[in-house]
Amino acid sequence: MALYAELHRHLGGSVVPRVLWRYFERHSSELISRFADYPEFEEFYTRPRNTLDEYLELHTLVESVQTVETLPYFIYRLLRGAYIFENLAYLELRYTPYLRTPEHLSQSQRIDKMAEIVDVVGRASKISEYPIVTSQILCMHSRLPYEVNKAIVDLAAQSRQYVCAVDIAGGDSYYRDRLKEWIELYEYALSLGINTTGHLYETTAGFYPELLPYLMRIGHGIQIPLLYPELLPDLAKRNQCLEVCPTTYLKTGTLQDIRQLKLVFDRCFNAGVDIAICTDNAGLHNVRLPFEYENLLTYDIINFEQLQACQDAAFRHAFAWPYSQRPASLLNGLLKPQSAQILAMKTN
């Protein structure tokens, strides 16, 4: 039964270790030649890293094999798992299309190829046997030039049947020197009617209050309630939602203990700031969204009522969810006539 919404999942980090290992075995065995067996590969792929930069290097391993030809293979398996094991009704996949184009091409040729990537991802995501509402978020990247990032915004505007928003990624410690560019690009995106989110305040280096007014949602944002709670009232006024990905902060060394997130949730609930619980990189973590829910409950970071509030917030802030209610409410509506009929049969 599909019930949940996932707002922050990277295409590069969404491939679970077993699927990636099988692909490498069949098509790129040289990439796993240094591993004796699958358990050794899984341990390397999913173990915690010391920093966010070290963690993000793993994305390059997957990006190198996510091409026009192979993306349908990976997306089919991603959606199959999301539907069967995670009960997802809605999924936003984010990635940088430029990084899925052939590296030997010129910059302009790679820009031209990006539209094909978006189209392939969009078509591959429409699977009748796993009916999940899907959409794409295109990520600008801190290590790409302005021309490429602007082309990504333009592509989002031209691909509205598949794309619901733009993002900025690549490590939040690298934005400062080009802050004017990012503001200009977000202003441009908003002028085109494109939804916006962005990786900010994930780490202590991600302090960019100048960018906050341009975002509808905030990717991670946990350092706001932890270190800058005075910003929370403004987030509440702007109806901004934090995309909190619990396991990520342990994998990147950002937090030492998941229980540190209790302060994040407490302060956000008290300030009226919505949180959507997400996985970020379900493959790199070897976890699924229900596990994130269960972990937060197990460590008494949130209670069941707060969990439901976060699940409701995920659908409320979803950029491309086409209904006014979340699936549980729709299902209840369908079941009411059936329940009434059963009650009538019992009383007659």
From TrEMBL:
One of its GO terms (biological process) is adenosine catabolic process. Keywords: Hydrolase, Metal-binding, Zinc. This is adenosine deaminase. One of its GO terms (cellular component) is cytosol. Pfam families: A_deaminase. Its EC number is 3.5.4.4. It is an enzyme of class 3 (hydrolase). Its cofactor is Zn(2+). Residues 5-320 form the Adenosine deaminase domain. Belongs to the metallo-dependent hydrolases superfamily. Adenosine and AMP deaminases family. GO terms for molecular function: adenosine deaminase activity; metal ion binding.
